[in-house]
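The authors assume throughout that readers already know how a fold can be written as discrete tokens. The format is easy to grasp once an entry is in front of the reader. For illustration, here is how one protein appears when written out as sequence plus structure tokens:
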Amino acid sequence: MDIGGLFASTVTSGALLVAIPLTMTAGLVGTALAFVRRHIRIVNIAGTSRLIVLGILMVSGVWVNWIY
């Protein structure tokens, strides 16, 4: 087998190693996404609140003290 064939078979087997577990967990991902869709308002409020708090901490300088 030449280097091109070796490369192609390596890439293909690598793609299969990723694709097989993804297809096996598709049901779990669908369930998790359904939960997020049902509670999207709470998810949006929580994310927005975190961004507002982070912005206030950065503007006030507290964030820099925590990081360094």
